[in-house]
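**User:** Everyone, produce a chain:

**Assistant:**
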Amino acid sequence: MAQKVLILGASGMLGHDLQTVYPDAVCRGHELDITDEEAVLSFISDLKLSLVINAAAYTNVDGCEEEQDLAFVVNGEGPGHIAAACHEVGATLVHYSTDYVFDGSQEAYCESDTPNPINVYGASKLRGEEAVMAAMDDYRIIRTSWLFGQNGPNFVETMLRLSNEMEMVRVVNDQFGKPTFTVDLAAKTLEIVKREPGIYHITNEGVCSWYEFASAIIPNVEPCSSEEFLRPATRPKYSVLENTKTGPMRPWQDALTDYLNTRTKR
């Protein structure tokens, strides 16, 4: 019997690439409000789904500081509504979370490490994880980091734009993580669905600072400290996710090369 799949957040960067992996999926973007519990339950129940992939989220890290209530409703309560509906119909749920559930006090984090977010975005995403786990057992929570892809605003596009607008682009060199290509993450999701329920850390391989990442994208970049580049949301110094459960994805440098090559052909 064919698997019936729903992709939520289908209009976003990751959502677009998930549609390539699941070409027959039902897709919904903003037209389905995940904060509306009744609407979510009704929609998922009517479709008789076997798999729901939730890529919907409020991802503006600094914006979450200014709109805290909205962040917790979308990132915290919304996933709980989806999970409850999945439990009701017996569907598997894949839900994406973030490296920012950790405080950055250690150099790397595996799936079993205790979260301790230091900004509203991370706290709201952790609330979503907790809501999913409280509502059902057949879940795959995928924590990922530093996403870039073809169909949305991202760090790579920001660097390319600023490189053309400024003589030198200043980027922090004291925050470390793992860049992740949404094409690779979407493909890896297909594998994770077939694995045991639980939390997974999925990124491209290789650790770098934001400055090192920027240096691989543009030539006119110079380093600065986080104190010199203050933003509304505090970022963890280290948000490196260690994958201890599956085979590694390719290095982020190779993924970036593919992204830039594809971008120039558009």
Q: What stands out?
A: DSSP finds nine helices and twelve strands in the chain. Residues 5-149+178-206+240-250 form a domain with the Rossmann fold fold (CATH 3.40.50.720).
